[in-house]
Amino acid sequence: MEQSKQRIGLTPRQQQVLAFLVAYQKNSGVYPTVREICKGKIDGKQAMPKMAAQSNVHRILNCLARKGYILKEINSPRGIAVI
Q1: CA 65, CA 81: separation in Å to the nearest integer?
Q2: Which one-letter DSSP state was computed for residue 36?
Q3: For residue 61, what is the enclosing H or E element?
Q4: pLDDT in tens, 9-67
Q5: Please, which pLDDT band fits residue 6 given cuts at 50, 70 and 90?
Q6: Residue 9 and residue 47: Cα distance in Å, rounded?
Q7: What three-state secondary structure class fits 19?
Q8: Which run of H or E residues covers position 45?
Q9: For residue 1, is pLDDT > 60?
Q10: First to last CA, the chain
Q11: How far apart are CA 75 and CA 28, in angstroms?
Q12: Which of 44, 40, 69 is nearest to 53 (CA)?
């Protein structure tokens, strides 16, 4: 996964997850599920460090949504869209 530009207002981990979302969507045509984000793999290759808990992914996605980087659709497994 190529390094994206530094985004102001995001922690390094939030930047990693955002870059992962973009790369995953570009590669697969769909956005990843929370479990797929947790694994951090794209086509079987580790694209970002694995996350220990899905709750961490939820927290980061909520922060990204609050900061206006993504849109989240409630109760949808792939309900994420990068703005």
Answers
A1: 10
A2: H
A3: helix 54-66
A4: 899 999 999 999 999 999 999 999 999 999 999 999 999 999 999 999 999 999 999 99
A5: low
A6: 22
A7: helix
A8: strand 45-46
A9: no
A10: 19
A11: 21
A12: 40
